Every structure is written in C-alpha cells, then in structure tokens.
Amino acid sequence: MMLERNRAAGAIRGAKWQGILLLLWASTAVLLGENPVQKPENGRLFPPQIRTVGIISPACMIAPEALDRCVAFLEAHKVKVKVGSACRFPIPVKALTCAPLPVRVKEFETMWLDPEIDLLIAVRGGIGAEALIGKVDWKKLRTRKAALLGFSNITALQTAMTAEHAGLVFSGPSLQALLQAGPQTREHLCRVLAGENPPPFQLNIIRPGKCEGKVLSANMISLVFSFRCGVRPDTRGKILFLEHTGFTPQKIVQLLSILRSKGIFDSCAGVVFCSLTQKTPEWAEEAQKVTENFAKSLPCPAFMGYPYGHDKVNLTIDQQSTAFLSEDGVLTFQVQGIPVKKEPLPAVSH
C-alpha cells in the first residue's frame, strides 16, 4: 500500500516537474548556446558528422536477406555503408549463429581501425560478444577513437572498451532493432550522437537521494559475462544503468547477487534500473518487485523507469556523458556525442 502511494506521489511530482523542466531545458539551451556541435536535420537518423557507418557482427549474425534490408535502410538515410566480413560469413544462419571467433576478431579490429568509418553498429546482440574481450589487441585499438553502437550482449564488449579506455561507447539499439524502432528511439539516437543534450526525464524513486557522475550502462547478464572474462569496470562515482530481459524473477535475484558480490554497487554514485522486459505479465510484476526490493538495500540513491533496453522505446546512452539525478528523481544528461572531424585546410597556391 505504501509503495502504491509512493508511486502515485512520484507520478504527480513527475507530471509537474517534467513540464517545468522541459521548458527550462529548451530555453536555457537557446540562451546559453548549449552544445556547439553540428545538429541533426529534421528526419535524419544520424547527424551530419556521421558520413560512413560500419556494420559489424561481434555477436550473432542475421540472415543475408535481413542484412541486405539493413544496408538499404542505412543508405536510405544518406550514409555510406561498409559491411564487415563476419556479417556475411558463408554459414547457415539460425537463431544464435555466430561467425567463427577469429573472423569476428579480425572484423572488429579492421573495421575499428578504418579511418573512413565514423560509427560502428553491431548488427544484433544475442551471444558471443564477450568472447572477443581477451582476443582483440586493445593497445592497437587505443590508437583510434572509434565509436560503437549496440546493446544487450554487445554491452559485454562495451564494458571492456570502457575498462580499456578504448573508443567511444553508445549503448543503444543495434542495427536490427533500429530498423524496427519508432520515432522517439530514432530521434533520441540522432540527438545524442550529435552531442545535443536530451530533455529531462522523470524516474520513479526507489531509494531517494541526489547524485551525479559518469555513466556505465549494461545488460545485467552481459555485465556478469564481462567479469568472467576478467574485466573489472571501475564504478567509483559512476551512475549505473542496468537492464535485463526474459529472465525469471529468481534469475534476476541471482544476477543482482553476483554483481553485488563483485562489489559493483559498493562505491557507485547511483543506480538506475531500466527496462525489465519479461515473457509474461506475471513475471513482469514479480521482476519489478524483486528489483525494487534489491534497490532498497543499495548504499546509494536508486531509481527505476528509464526506457533503455529490450522494449519498444530504447533511448541511447552516451557513456562519455555525465548524468545528474535530482532528489525528485529527474534525470538529465550532459552528453559529448561523436566529435566533428576537422576538415583539412585547402592547399594555398603561390
């Protein structure tokens, strides 16, 4: 009963603050000249600084005809497309088919180091991305600041990128998911990649408090996979964004307990539990309860309700950004986006 009253009170506060903050956000962005970057045009999927997109398959593959649709989709949005070798590896593609690991490693390194590619997009998640962690040459990859977009199992690899200080992480829809995404997901992606701060978002308060910090976003089981592969993400002072899909409530408790045992929650600034998608309404309700109960036991502010993960709306998180959470549960981001390439100066004729 108390929980329901808290939710109702949070909804009222949210309606009030969401409207006020949206107006403040819009006005201050104009008045202060916020985010001096190239902003996307109306209807664009990518901002102008993204001219070439590389499609990679570090986890599962998709069928050749589905891949062709993805390429056509990107080309329709006025970008040049390069397709990695693992994406078209000649084997029958089933539900969780991955190209051989050496092929995926070579594809990842080759596409990463291609100076023409402005953004790498994982074609899908599934399984297998964690296998690349101990195989790729991180020293070589640190020579170029490549950007990788993906979520779900891809976050295992993205967590390693953050720990290795390699590249730029954008945790959001993979290419297959982007093809089916609605306008809110697509517009948010374009805005974040452009370096334009998204509007404030009202969260549900589970453990009250005010916090700010750098961001780490991940799928829960993929984060566990990262630990098993030797990755130790530094969560000190960070705000964690966690999502999961399809697990029983008992499995969720198990995953959260593993993460707690690894110390991931010990010194973080805050935790936001995002999309908790389930197979049945009964599982969804129970998953909500066990996650809330766990959140109440954390040593930091905890919130729920950000639409990131396996849901109809999947809002991309720029892991280079700083997140701010007010005591009223209002979330704001200060994002960095994809840097604009400096064009070479024209030669001066004498």
General description of the model:
With 350 residues, the protein is an alpha/beta fold. The protein has two domains: 52-193, Rossmann fold (3-Layer(aba) Sandwich), CATH 3.40.50; 197-334, LD-carboxypeptidase A C-terminal domain-like (Glucose Oxidase, domain 1, 3-Layer(bba) Sandwich), CATH 3.50.30. It is 36% helix and 19% strand. It contains ten helices and 14 strands. It has helices at residues 2-31, 64-76, 101-113, 138-141, 154-163, 175-180, 183-193, 220-228, 249-261, 281-296; strands spanning 52-56, 80-83, 119-122, 147-150, 168-171, 201-202, 204-207, 211-219, 239-245, 270-277, 302-304, 317-318, 322-325, 330-334. The strands form two sheets. Strands 6-14-13-8-9-10-11-7 form an eight-stranded mixed beta sheet. The chain has a six-stranded mixed beta sheet with strand order 2-1-3-4-5-12, sandwiched between helices. Helix 9 links the parallel strand 9 (239-245) and strand 10. Helix 5 (154-163) packs across helix 8 (220-228), helix 8 crosses helix 9 (249-261) and helix 9 (249-261) packs parallel to helix 10. The N and C termini lie far apart (81 Å).
- SSE sequence, one letter per element: HEHEHEHEHEHHEEEHEHEHEEEE
Number of strands: 14
- Summed up, the helix count is 10
- What is the end-to-end distance? 81 Å
Q: Helix coverage percent of residues?
A: 25-40%
Number of domains: 2
- Give the C-alpha Rg: 20 Å
Query: How would you name the CATH homologous superfamily of the largest domain?
Result: Murein tetrapeptidase LD-carboxypeptidase, N-terminal domain
Shape: globular
CATH class designation of the largest domain: Alpha Beta
Low-confidence stretches: 1-41
CATH architecture descriptor name of the largest domain:
3-Layer(aba) Sandwich
In terms of DSSP E residues, the strand content is 15-25%
